């Protein structure tokens, strides 16, 4: 299969690329390298350094992709709050450019990387795809707009694009500045023998899902008739417990430093994975400790002296 992976030089995208290459697919990565790096892209894949804010017709005409995994994004919530127009240029207009070029060139299905945490807002229980949405940042609003464009393209042109609402993804190659870099920050602190900060009471929970599971879910969405799916574990992990597990895995003996709560930070965020299990046959299988260990091993192997 000829696959195009936008954002394939980034954290999650590069794992999607690896999973496609492992299947023997023909992979082209399109990435501006704003955040992603050449080192993240295996040499078996072609890398096009391009920006999704610019026209993409020549790329689609040349590659004729049968599947498009759209992971290029401005993925930093704080940047979106500071510069909402810039965020929307990539996350809304860039997504429309990908959808429009794919349609006009008769390309295959688009699988779009959306977000659970930034779309559902505060959760009383694991969020279902049918729950009300309440984005609390320009990033969340832009991702929701992207989903609506996919839905609308499906209706208007009888397509079968899929949006995946990822939980807090963690694993090797994560940049600590991304949307959900807390694992990278904690293990990075342990590696540097520094004390990380825990904001507020530390009881905030998130649904941490390992990047290998996320890549598997992303490939697994191909062939579905179209829709929106949560990609998470259904389990909540508090920040305090996460640092405890990071200490265990890294052997750090340091305590975290308490810091004032950050205004607007979500108290609970967790995704109900039942629809993806039912319709995509997807289940997250990597346990937290196992995923943290793989991430720690990568940090140790790649640390700069
Ligand atoms: N990391 C998470 O926990 C998480 C959670 C939910 C959703 N997501 C989504 O998953 C996707 C991948 O996230 P990630 O964590 O790997 O982030 P990342 O920043 O590592 O990857 C995004 C990639 O997009 C590229 N990019 C940015 N702007 C671009 C542009 N205008 N044109 C072309 N390329 C551009 C970057 O260089 C980078 O390689 C994003 O869409 C993100 O919103 C991530």
Oligomer state of the chains in this structure: single chain
Query: What fraction of residues sit in β-strands?
Result: 15-25%
**What small molecules are bound in this structure?**
nicotinamide-adenine-dinucleotide
> Percentage of helical residues?
40-55%
Order of helices and strands: EHEEHEHHEHHEEHEEEHEEHEHH
Gross CATH architecture of the domain at 2-170 and 208-232: 3-Layer(aba) Sandwich
Stretches with pLDDT under 50, minimum 5 residues: none
Mean pLDDT: 95
Distance between the termini: 41 Å
Q: Describe the main β-sheet briefly.
A: 7 strands, parallel
Radius of gyration: 19 Å
- The CATH topology of the domain at 2-170 and 208-232 comes to Rossmann fold
Which word captures the global form?
A: globular
Which structural category do the helix and sheet elements fall into?
A: alpha/beta
Return the CATH class of the domain at 2-170 and 208-232: Alpha Beta
List the strand order in the largest sheet.
3-2-1-4-5-6-11
Please tally the β strands and state the result: 13
Describe the structure.
The chain is an alpha/beta fold. The protein has a domain at 2-170 and 208-232: Rossmann fold (3-Layer(aba) Sandwich). Helix content is 41%, strand content 17%. It has helices at residues 11-23, 57-63, 77-82, 84-104, 117-120, 138-157, 182-191, 211-220, 239-250, 274-280, 288-302; strands spanning 2-6, 26-31, 46-49, 67-70, 109-115, 162-166, 168-170, 197-199, 205-206, 208-210, 227-231, 237-238, 257-259. The strands form four sheets. The protein has a seven-stranded parallel sheet, sandwiched between helices. Strands 7-10 form a two-stranded parallel ribbon. Helix 1 (11-23) links the parallel strand 1 (2-6) and strand 2 (26-31). Helix 1 packs across helix 8 (211-220). It is globular and about 55 Å long. The structure holds nicotinamide-adenine-dinucleotide (NAD). Nicotinamide-adenine-dinucleotide (NAD) binds next to helix 1, helix 4, strand 5 and strand 7.
């Amino acid at each position: 299969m000829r696959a195009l992976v936008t954002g394939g030089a980034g954290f999650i995208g590069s794992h999607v690329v690896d999973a496609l290459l492992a299947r023997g697919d023909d992979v082209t990565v399109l990435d501006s390298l704003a955040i992603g790096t050449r080192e993240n892209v295996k040499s078996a894949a072609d890398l096009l350094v391009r920006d999704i804010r610019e026209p993409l017709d020549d790329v689609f005409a040349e590659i004729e992709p049968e599947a498009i995994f759209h992971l290029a994004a401005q993925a930093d919530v704080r940047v979106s709050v500071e510069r909402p127009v810039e965020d929307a240029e990539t996350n809304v207009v860039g997504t429309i450019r990908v959808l429009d070029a794919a349609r006009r060139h008769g390309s295959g299905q688009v699988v779009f990387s959306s977000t659970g945490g930034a779309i559902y807002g505060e959760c009383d229980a694991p969020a279902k795809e049918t729950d009300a949405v309440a984005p609390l940042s320009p990033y969340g609003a832009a991702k929701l707009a992207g989903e609506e464009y996919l839905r609308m393209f499906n209706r208007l042109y009888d397509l079968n694009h899929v949006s995946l609402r990822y939980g807090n993804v963690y694993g090797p190659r994560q940049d600590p500045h991304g949307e959900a870099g807390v694992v990278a920050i904690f293990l990075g602190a342990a590696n540097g023998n520094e004390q990380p900060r825990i904001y507020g009471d530390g009881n905030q929970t998130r649904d941490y899902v390992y990047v290998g599971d996320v890549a598997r879910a992303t490939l697994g969405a191909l062939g579905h008739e179209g829709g929106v799916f949560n990609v998470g574990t259904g389990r909540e992990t508090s920040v305090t417990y996460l640092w405890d597990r990071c200490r265990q895995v890294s052997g750090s003996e340091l305590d975290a430093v308490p810091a004032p709560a950050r205004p607007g930070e979500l108290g609970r965020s967790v995704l109900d994975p039942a629809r993806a299990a039912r319709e995509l046959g997807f289940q997250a299988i990597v346990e937290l400790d196992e995923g943290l260990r793989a991430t720690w091993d990568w940090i140790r192997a790649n640390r700069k002296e």
